[in-house]
Amino acid sequence: MTGSTELEQTASLLRLVGVRGPSIAPVEVTRAGGVIGRSSACEVRLADATMSRRHAEISWIGGRWMLSDLGGANGTWLNDVRLEGGAPTPLAPGDRIAVGPWVLQVGTWAPTTVAMTGDVETADAMAQVERIDPIATGRMAHHRLQLLIDCAERINKAADERAMAMSLLESVIEGTGYGRAALVRLVGDDEGVEILGSCARDGSEPDQFSRTLVIRASGGEMVTLASQESQGNWGQSIAELNIHSAMCCPILLDEQVAACLYLDARGGEQEVQPDAAGFCQALSQLAGLAMSNLRRQEMRLRQRELDEEMSAAREAQQLMVPMQQKELVKIDYEVEFLPGRVASGDLFDVVTLSEDRVAVILGDVSGKGVGAAILMAASQAYLHSALLRHESPAMAVADLNQFVLERSASNRFLTLWVGVFSVDGELTYVDAGHGHWAQCTADGVTVHHAASSPLVGAFDEVEYVDVSVQLTAGERVVLMTDGIPEQPGQDNEQFGSERVQAILEKTRTCKEDVTELLAAVRAWSAAAALADDTTVASVQAIRDESQAES
User: Fold this and answer.
1) Is the distance from CB of 206 to CB of 212 less than 8 angstroms?
2) Tally of CA atoms within 13 A in the half-sphere of 24 that contains its CB
3) Spatial separation of the C-alpha atoms in residues 291 and 370, rounded to whole Å
4) What are the mean pLDDT values of the chain's consecutive 10-residue runs (550 residues total)?
5) CA–CA gap between residue 30 and residue 34 (Å, rounded)
6) How many CB atoms lie within 10 A of CB 107?
């Protein structure tokens, strides 16, 4: 199976092709993601009673495609492994997603897809296909037993599907008399097959296959071409190849056909062994078990790698987040960081600049995982130093913009809010592409949506602007990452800034701001975990008492 790296590098769109179940057109999912379900609001709508309204979700997270189960009663299966707990699982090209009656294959397969030969399912062609009686396949010659044992050992030691397929095919040719063999599976609307592996006695690469046999075997039957004195009614390609014997066996994973073992003999090649059908059936069963084990191992490896990456990212985040609550000379604050399903680059810091000034920083780095966490940590350290060098927060952010542009990938950037609170009640801030914050004053709550400056790390030679406001003692500034207003609910509706304002109009302290907002977002969320890491901070202005009295 192709590794996940290829999918990460090439796929601005994820393509899903139905390979089992009711006929559907190929579906493309953008990096904005999409929900699979029977609701009309779903990006991938599959209308069937076995589907939940919101069944599963495909997301672009941290530079890779992910699949999450959304808790549907009938479950979501990836490569025959049921997804649990709503945690995102990485996708790779060729993966098969089973939801309801459908199996959807991930990615595109043009480089590995070949056409099948032209024996279209006419009455003549279908009449020459015989179903093999399972009872007859049980009479397997004793001398085949050692071949089966050797093959079972080899395929269960195989490191991947390619190695497993080649071990299987070598045993098939050795034990049946067929001249060539291939492990194949249908692609798209039965227009061609994907070759998982192939071999032949004469060293050639099989590249043409009986369409009728593969389609019949993909339905779950073991089939063979009937013996005929005349081949005049066969498809033209089969006749030209002079195939005199052919067989196709389904390989089942949890009662679904994962691939087909195809064999044929041509021209003057020897007749196949009389017990070939039983031998192939036994090998197909062994191959199904080996393939299932390989896929489970791959899924466990993907999940372990993802867990290790997320753990490293979490550690980086926790090292950089200051105390949850604290009272300083100029302000007091409350902050809470709530992990989402994957680690991201949320940034929060409080920096004492002098006896009269303190800076508060809240930001969000694009992307997820270790890369975002590292950029967050580097940006936080650099901005801390820049704020100590400059009186103006805008100048400090401009320096940070150049730092990120010179050292980060082109698709990495930050949204950032930086505010400097002075002892006289003045707040000077820069809103660099962030836009998610609110002022709580005696006159009411104002929720800010539009940023006053560009985001950080996206453009060179941009201007960052200081904005100043005067705060009175006790007034609060509430900062949040986009995980609050953009958290989706049951019908994919976002939490929104109006709900933020309604909550803050009822709260009176920094602690209430944080706890009430997070409680409301948790209740709103349709999933067990929030879609994104979420940080909320509430900062209360404290006037210096001696200046206030004067």
Assistant:
1) no
2) 21
3) 32
4) 41 81 87 86 88 89 84 84 81 87 73 47 55 51 64 78 84 84 77 81 77 84 66 51 83 82 82 78 85 78 67 55 51 80 71 90 78 78 91 95 81 88 92 94 88 89 92 92 84 88 94 94 74 84 52
5) 8
6) 20
